[in-house]
Fold this sequence. Notes:
The protein is mostly helical. It contains three helices and no strands. It starts with a helix and ends with a helix.
Amino acid sequence: MTTTEICALIALIISTGIVYWAGYRGGLVNGRSEGLEEGKSIQKADSSEEVRELQLLLEHSRGEHKKLYTHYKHAWAASKLGEGDRQTLLDIAEKLRIAAATFNALRTGKAITRETNALRDQALAMAALLEPVAQEDAA
């Protein structure tokens, strides 16, 4: 073999090695990028499912919030009862006492007398509940 042939053979071997190495590295880079893209798409699918679940949970929470807010508004309106309402309840209790005495005098309305007394006791209990609230408002 001549020197030219030996140099050509060495150049051929080196160029084959460079082409092989370039193809190997290119394939490695392509494989890595495809793997990353596939991982991202899997992660995105998992994330979108989590987002759907969270949206359903949010909608459910909004419904519960509306219910609780409605209850809150009713409770707030009930808590605004004051001294005037307490006095009204005391007046109702007095009228019920008079009605119970009247029915008791007739001796025909024993059941009505019991019901009237029970309603009077309830009105007095409600008025008693409102009394500390009025004292707290004054302080």
